[in-house]
Every structure is written in structure tokens, then in C-alpha cells.
Amino acid sequence: MSTSDENGPEPPHDADGTARRDFLKKAATGAAAAAGGLAFVGGQASAAQPPTPPSVGAEIPCSCLAPGVPLTIQAATVQIDFSGQIKVRVESANPLNPWSLKLKVIGHEVTGTDNGDSGEEAKSAQREGLGRVHIKQSDAEVTPESLLEMTQQSPPKFEQTMFLNFTMTIENPPQQLMERSLGVSLTKRPEPLVLTTKNPGKLVGHLNNFPPQGEVYQLQNPIELVVPNHDETIATIDRFPVQVGGLDDS
């Protein structure tokens, strides 16, 4: 009957022990390789861990870039490039799902300029531009909370919904529009026109990162703009593709 260990090979026997030393070296090398393989697998598992969500109370500033936003005013549509910033604050988190967060927009401000049509861009008579067009959050307290959800862990995917209430100030509004809005005839250049959102705009972003790193949010509903305390729609925004990127809060 053989007395060798059935759970592993029997070390070879030789007179001077050389074969035995070679066997032990190979066994040690194999064990090291196996340990390295386990460490690599463990590293992969660690790398696959989802990112940590921001804590409640954290404020996250981001840049905003919205090129070619169509603003329709007095039956004419102009394209305006807006740029600026937006900031959100984490209001609450679901204790059963740390990546189910409620966010509050606490700062949103972008500016663009419409210089009018001239030269080859003019379809008929030259159109005077609207000048500086400034969008600013109107009241953070009445703005609906935004939502952030992780929709996939590996690789991470997120969906964020943001609601925007804002005022729009148009530096050089068309005189006929101002006369209709005010109900009077004007004998001099009108003052800037201030409009406000009739209902919040809803933006949705499908993200690979949060804070976002240049991902684009799309408008889900047309934004109607009215003179404060009036119901008549003066201007509309049908698309608002805004590229959002993280900023250092400095």
C-alpha cells in the first residue's frame, strides 16, 4: 500500500536533495502566483464599488453651457447661446437607497446676447437684436425639488430631474411688444422687459457621473414666459439643451 499523501504530489527523493529543493521552489512560486491572482480579483471587486453619494447639506456648483437655445418672441424665433452656472443643494436621502436624493436648485444664472441679423444672415430687412438676455432663478423656495437616482451600479449610471423657475430680462425688447404688454404707446426706447416662467421648466439628464462632467440635460416641456401677474404668453423656449459640468466651490 502506498503511504504518499493523496491530497498532493509526493516530493521526489534523491541522494543530495537537489530535486527536493527544486520541487519546493516551484511550489512556493505557484503559491505566490495564486495569491497574486486572488489580490487581482479582489482589486477588481474593489474597483467595481459604486461611488459615494454626496452628504445631505452639500452644495454642488456646476457650469452651464446652452448653445443655440430657440427663443420665440413676437412670432419670431432667435437662437441664443447661453452660459453661466447652476448650484444645487442635497436636501435629503432615502435611508434604504443612499443614491436616491432630493436636491434643491439654489442658484441658476445664465446670460446670452442677440445681436440681430445683418448682412447675409438677414432674410429681409435687418432685425435689431434683443441685446443681452439674462436668465436668473426667481425664487428657490417655490422651485420644486429636483431628483437624483442611480439607475445602474456598474458602470454607474444616473438620472437627474431638475425644475427651473426663473426671470428673463431682455435688454432691448421690440417696441411693439412692450406697448402691447404695457397697454400704452411709447415715445422713446423701451426699458428692459422682465418676464417670468408661467410654469417650471423640467430638465432631465442621463449621466455617467455625478456631479456631471459635461453631460447634456434636455428640456421636457416648452417654457412659457409671461409678464409678472399676467397670463398672456409673451415668449417661449421650446428647447434648452444645456451641458452641465462640475466646478470647485471656491
What does this structure look like?
This protein has 250 residues and is of the alpha+beta class. The chain has two domains: 10-49; 59-118 and 125-246. The protein is built from two helices and 13 strands, in the order H-E-E-E-E-E-E-E-H-E-E-E-E-E-E. The protein has helices spanning 18-47, 175-182; strands at 59-73, 76-94, 97-116, 128-137, 146-152, 157-164, 166-170, 193-197, 201-207, 213-219, 223-226, 233-237, 242-246. Strands 1, 2, 3, 4, 5, 6, 7, 8, 9, 10, 11, 12 and 13 form a 13-stranded antiparallel β-sheet that branches. Strand 1 (59-73) and strand 2 (76-94) form a beta hairpin.
Order of helices and strands: HEEEEEEEHEEEEEE
Output mean pLDDT: 81
Cα-based radius of gyration, to the nearest Å: 31 Å
Report low-confidence residues grouped into runs of 5 or more: 31-46, 118-122
The structure class reads: alpha+beta
Major sheet attributes: 13 strands, antiparallel
Span between termini? 80 Å
Shape field:
elongated
* Count of extended strands: 13
Give the helix tally.
Answer: 2
Instruction: Give the number of domains.
Output: 2
Share of β-strand residues: over 45%
The helical percent reads 10-25%
Task: Produce a short descriptive summary.
The protein is of the alpha+beta class. 15% of the residues lie in helices and 47% in strands.
Indicate the topology.
Blueprint lengths: L17 H30 L11 E15 L2 E19 L2 E20 L11 E10 L8 E7 L4 E8 L1 E5 L4 H8 L10 E5 L3 E7 L5 E7 L3 E4 L6 E5 L4 E5 L4
Antiparallel strand pairs: 1-2, 1-12, 1-13, 2-3, 3-4, 3-5, 4-7, 5-6, 6-9, 7-8, 8-11, 9-10, 10-13, 11-12
